[in-house]
Prior knowledge:
Helix content is 19%, strand content 26%. By secondary structure, the protein is of the alpha+beta class. The radius of gyration is 22 Å and the shape is elongated.
Amino acid sequence: MPSRALLLAVALALALLALLALVTLRAVTDRERPPARWPDAAAIPLADGFDFPVGAPDARGYRDAQPFGLNQHLGSDWNGVLGADTDLGDPVFAAAAGLVTEAADHGGGWGNVVRVVHRVSSAPGRAGAGAGPERVVETLYAHLDRIDVRPGDLVTRGQPIGTIGTAHGRYLAHLHFELRTSVGVALGGGYGDPALGQVDPTAFIQAHRPPRR
Ligand SMILES: [Zn+2]
């Protein structure tokens, strides 16, 4: 009898250990992982300015169906002017020169996501070198149908990085585009308080246009 009780106690302890391991593993995998690479600032090209991520450089042929702030939206929803899925598969462009820090499928409401970090002058309207103190911002491109870049890639302004998608059939095709002053933080929910450094991407782009010849 005592050996039976001992066996029971051991089995119980083992079960408890297994449960603990499972809970710990879940907590780790559930946590939103930051971009795989966190570069030092010197590795990030200095952006000479920002263009729109669709219909580059000026979003010609597209409209922002849900601008930043509307319904507490934390980005822009770029749609082809013809509506529905007419923009499915259209190219998405890097808004500025930068370093790809993430290119991954998050599933759910995000789908395929690309993030690019950019080094930029903080002086409004003057994005180039020598125009003032520098900072780092991040652009985020979501619901992509296809991803054409990998973490660690250097991209130029206007370079195709993927195509407009539906987040695996969840929405009519559009690009959810965010611009953040915080880099490499959680994806968040796309709506709500701009707690993750989200700013109005259109206002930012308009304040940081590249020099035109
Ligand atoms: Zn959106």
